[in-house]
Amino acid sequence: MNSFKLFCVGLGLTLVFGAGAALAQQAPPSPQQQGFEATGQLPAKYTSEEAAAVAVVKNWIDTTNTKDLAAHMALIDDNVIHRGDPAEALAHGARSYCAAYGFVRSNAWVRLDELYVVGGPSETLVLLKRTDINNPAGLEGTLGGYPVEVAVLLRVKNGKIIEWFDAPTIRIGPLVNRAANTLPPGGARVPEVCMKYPGPASAPVQGPAPAGGPPQTGAPQPHPVAPQLGSGMLSYGVTKLESRFNAEEESAAQTVRAWFAAWQAGNPLLLGAFVDQKVDFRTSPASELVKGRDALLKTVCGTIGGPLNLTDIYVIGAYWNTMAIARWNKVDAAGNRTRMASFFRVQNGLITEWMNSQLEGAAPAAAANQSSPVCQTVTTTLAAFAPAPAAGAPR
Fold first, then answer.
1. Alpha carbon distance 167, 177 (integer Å)
2. pLDDT tens-digit profile of 48-90?
3. Taking Cα atoms as reference points, which of 313, 310, 307, 277 lies closest to residue 295?
4. What is the CATH number of domain 43-229?
5. So where are the chain's domains?
6. How far apart are CA 244 and CA 379, in angstroms?
């Protein structure tokens, strides 16, 4: 553990006790359920919003495999946010989504293996595991016939997919050596078939692109839809209890629990011990990605702390990437609860991506009071651990 983490943990314990003394002067918090959260789901217990979102996602898979572009794009919001790999910057608009999500325009097909959902009246988060069969073996593409497991986050609202994130769970493809959010957005080269869909007015159009999906070396070959993937015949898992987590999923779940414990304690420095230095984050889906652990700590200081209920954690991953969604309740001083959801991407036990979503209501995320004692502590600590300027560099 590096010196910054050790300092965070030590100072974190001090601030936890200090926060406890302050809370003792207030009304006692509501009983907590942390440590007993669910890790499996029963579809019979979906909320109405969750059931509706799952139906949208099943259609998303089905229309991918039937190659029905019109029906597929009918599921996509005009202003969809999308990213086909963590190395890419976020892109916006249905037109670039059509260009980036090439499976529906290629011979590739996909299989839905696992699905978990956390939702409410405002929006719903769906985490799924998808296996991509990029092309029939021996026909085309460098990965022909090779199954690639992908963790996928979809945000659904009003019957439309408003966000799509892919993250391969294994180390594969040309993007693995790139830092997150550093490549240009996907879908910049728009094929003619996608031009009719809405896109940002400033979206670059660079002429025709290949049909999409994996690299192709010849004319597309007919590829029938796998019969087990037809409408109404999807099979997916929703009851992966923690006893069935692989090692990376178990590690990610523990990291997420530690995040919430530090969040509840109101201790941003302890929170930082579980966050990658180059983390990408958004405090709400309405904002763009911001990079860096220091920026995250400065953003959340003074806004966290107090009682919360962590009720569900769902994880999908392997040795390269693990993605998780969590359901939790934010509890205010009066005991009122707001249903919340959080998305995490975890690598090597550290959070590399984080986003909060409010499942009911539309209150904007609170801004940190930078003059608060906690934020001043963060500023002082980060300054103490700032790298020294190079010899001869201006001070």
1. 14
2. 999 999 999 999 999 999 999 999 999 999 999 999 999 898 9
3. 277
4. 3.10.450.50
5. 3-30+245-384, 43-229
6. 41
